[in-house]
Amino acid sequence: MHAASREALTDVTDRLRGHLEQGGQLVARAAQTGTELFDVVEILDSNRTLRVALANSATPAEAREGLARNLLADKISENTLAVLLDAVAQTWSTAGEFRQGLILLARRSLFIGAEAEGNLVQVEDELFRLSRILRDNPELTRLLGDKKTEPNKRRELLANVLYGKVTRTTEALVLQVVGRIEQDPIEDCRTLAEQAAEMRGKTIARVETAHELSDEQRNALADKLARIYGHEMSIHTEVDTSLLGGMIIRVGDEVIDGSTAGKLQRLRVNLG
Predict the structure, then answer these.
(1) What NCBIfam families does the database record attribute to this sequence (predicted)?
(2) In this predicted structure, what is the pLDDT of residue 258?
(3) Given a cut of 80, is residue 262 above it in pLDDT?
């Protein structure tokens, strides 16, 4: 996002929880607002003229808010409308970034609900595990990422796979992702997991190990990486016996290969 859009998103995000807490029942309101903001995005995706009009900073904010209220107030709850009007009143660099801001606010609402329910850590883990499941099932990933297929068809396919296996928050998030693929289903699920970790003030470290780590080892690794990177880490692990020993750690684009297989490969290169 450009600077103006980043500032707009920060301002609205800072006030989001206050909107959700009005009237109590935070969990229910957060889920409703997140879902309805996604519905608004669907409407804007089908009406480019409206999307551009709501994000047009050359038009007074009051006029943009009036347009949003007149066209959308009967389709969403008062809480969701308050969040939407707050977003519409901001200055966004482009209509596309306004749309992206609404998507991020919708996700944030669902994360806030999960946090209030006490299962945000579970949601983060489910999102990460789903990215691994998709990585190991290329045909399913191909079907979910096929933009020639209607979004609702892709959502229906994934809903059948997920039924009864994940929290309702995780299901709501990933069904929205496959309906509007940004990169590919695997990377988009990883992005959601990273955003859930960010809600907890943490950064994800993806760790592949030759053997399952104990809780003590996970905690020690998290502490060590926190000292290296200067902030708390959320450790996501996967066992890969082909590593023979040690581990590979990925934090963002950085890779630390301390596996036995990696060391042997480097030794072969050096000797060759």
Answers:
(1) ATP_synt_delta, PRK13430.1
(2) 82
(3) no
Supply the mean pLDDT for the chain: 92
CA distance 257 to 140: 29
Distance CA 202, CA 29 (A): 25
Mean pLDDT of all residues in 93-110:
96
Residue type, 154: R
Q: Shortest CA distance to 225 belongs to which of 240, 195, 247, 196?
A: 247
Identify the bridge partners of residue 209 per DSSP, sorted by sequence position. 239, 247
Does pLDDT of 261 surpass 80? no
In whole angstroms, what separates CA 123 from the centre of its chain? Answer: 11
Strand 254-257 relative to strand 233-239: parallel, antiparallel, unpaired? unpaired
Q: How many residues does the chain have?
A: 272
Inter-axis angle of helices 151-162 and 168-179, nearest 10: 150
Instruction: Answer whether 32's CB lies under 8 Å from 75's CB.
Output: no
Quick one: pLDDT band at residue 133, thresholds 50, 70, 90?
Answer: very high
Kindly state the average pLDDT of the residues 179-208. 92
* Cα–Cα nearest to 5, from 68, 79, 116, 98: 98
| Averaged pLDDT for residues 178-194 | 92
